[in-house]
Amino acid sequence: MTNPSDLPVSGNDPANIKLLKAALDSSISGIIITDNTQFDNPIIYCNKAFEKLSGYSREEVIGRNCRFLQGNERDQEARGAIRRAVQKGEPITVELRNYRKSGELFWNELYISPIKGEKDQITHFIGVQNDITRRKNAEENLIYERDLVEQKIQERTRELNENREYLDSVIQTIRQGLLVLDPEFKVISANHFFLKTFKVEQRDTIGRSLYELGNGQWNIEQLRTLLEQILPTSNPVLDFEVDHEFPHIGRKLMLLNAHRIELEGDFKDRILLAIEDITEIRASEVRKDDFLSVSSHELKTPLTTIKGYNQAILRLLPADVNPKIHSMVSKSARQVDRLHNIITSLLEMSRIQSGKLVLDFEPIDLNVMVGELLDEFRESHSSHVLSLQGQISAMVPGDESQIAQVIQNLITNAIKYSPDAREIKVILSEVSNYAKISVTDFGLGISMEDQKMIFDRFFRGSTIQKHFPGMGIGLYICSQIIKQHGGTLWVDSEPGKGATFSFTLPLDKEKKND
């Protein structure tokens, strides 16, 4: 390369300096300059190509020693060669494993050249860097393919040869970590997503026992239980959760799915292991739930105060007050009540998510409970006709306030989503050793697609979202309450033909844990 002293610049002419900077910034190679006269040889300049290569901005780079690009891999042989060359003031070219700001591995071809001052002392070093990851991967792939061909010739049968291409094409296109294991749990194949997610290389993975990967990082008790105890008795194993602290990449929460591979109706003793990293997803959910919980608690205190003041204002208003003022205060009180109900629902959801929902089981007479609830609705919703059919002969164990909340929510929804149909039916019955309650309306109905997600948190159907306000957590709360009672909540509906929401409750307390 051209020595910087040969460049057509002299002195501190701003025009020449600007020209030199423009020339360096136009380079497709990453270029850095370090100051050898300062402690730890810090970076004092980097061009735009280096910022693009490393993912770091100039502000994040200046002042640091370039060793930070190696992350935790400070023991690479190339680093020793660099150290010796710097001490001797000699140029050197090496290949290093570096990491971008995102944590992504890349191979760096680094050329280092010393710059000497007037007294023949080395004042600076120039480093020119190029991403040679593709070339290195190609070399590794050539080595891997050569070894694989030899291994196939010696060890693999004709049947495995016929199916390898198909299996590889499947696992390489799926956006999850996928491994194919042999009966001894040795890795036959690993897709790119697995290698990238867990920061391992193909040559250190293929042919090795799963438990030996990463110096034993995958020797996980939960994983052994899945592969050695559960999988042999069940095919497949779905959504098996594993929480593990990896020494080099930190804690990972993983969702594992394991299948024995079946070809032509026979099990070929191959295991397909799908590994989904849900660490960030779960952490995001926890942060969101914590935020909702804290926010709801913080909002409830001032809201209670506002509600109290509003009630006091209504009591203190003089009899001859302007009717508009009385109407405005009354409307304000209703909106405060609505906001209070929303916050209460968020707190209830937060308790469910954190496992802090406590149920107080006692015998419940559902006939009496449902009858009283319907009487209350009839008084406040004269626009609809609410009828009660059937009865339940036995007391049902459960938390009375929680079950009442479920029934209230279902009836409220039935009224809300059937504005043009007056009839609402509530039916009580016994099915086997379960009590069953159904709430039927003749309103808008629910599409099959929406029915699949209607009990998910924050889900609201597209049609409903346009015409009716709400947060989409009421049915989620109802489904979780019924689930914790040992029952099931479901919906039957067709668009334009109304909907029937039904749930069951065990008639005996022991049944709730089945």
CATH superfamily membership of the largest domain: Histidine kinase-like ATPase, C-terminal domain
> Which radius of gyration do the C-alpha atoms yield?
34 Å
Strand content: 15-25%
| Low-confidence blocks of residues | 1-11
Biggest sheet architecture? 5 strands, antiparallel
Q: Tell me the name of the CATH class of the largest domain.
A: Alpha Beta
- In the CATH classification, which architecture of the largest domain applies? 2-Layer Sandwich
User: What distance separates the N and C termini?
Assistant: 75 Å
SS elements, strand count: 17
Can you characterise this structure?
It is a single chain. The chain has 514 residues and is α+β, with helices and mostly antiparallel strands. It has four domains: 4-131, PAS domain (Beta-Lactamase); 136-277, Beta-Lactamase (2-Layer Sandwich), CATH 3.30.450; 282-353, Helix Hairpins; 362-513, Heat Shock Protein 90 (2-Layer Sandwich). It is 42% helix and 25% strand. It has 16 helices and 17 strands. It has helices spanning 14-25, 48-54, 58-61, 77-88, 133-154, 158-173, 192-197, 213-216, 221-230, 279-316, 323-353, 366-380, 400-416, 448-451, 462-467, 474-484, and strands at residues 30-35, 43-46, 92-99, 105-116, 122-131, 177-181, 187-190, 237-246, 250-263, 266-277, 362-364, 385-389, 396-398, 423-431, 434-441, 489-493, 499-506. The strands form four sheets. The chain has a five-stranded antiparallel sheet with strand order 2-1-5-4-3, sandwiched between helices. A five-stranded antiparallel sheet has the order 7-6-10-9-8, sandwiched between helices. A hairpin with a 2-residue loop joins strand 9 (250-263) and strand 10 (266-277). Helix 11 crosses helix 16 and helix 12 (366-380) packs parallel to helix 13. The longest helix is centred in the middle third of the chain and has 38 residues, at 279-316. The radius of gyration is 34 Å and the shape is extended. It starts with 13 loop residues before the first helix and ends in an 8-residue tail after the last strand. Mean pLDDT is 82; it is low at 1-11. Keywords: ATP-binding, Kinase, Membrane, Nucleotide-binding, Phosphoprotein, Transferase, Transmembrane, Transmembrane helix, Two-component regulatory system. Residues 294-509 form the Histidine kinase domain. It comes from Pedobacter endophyticus.
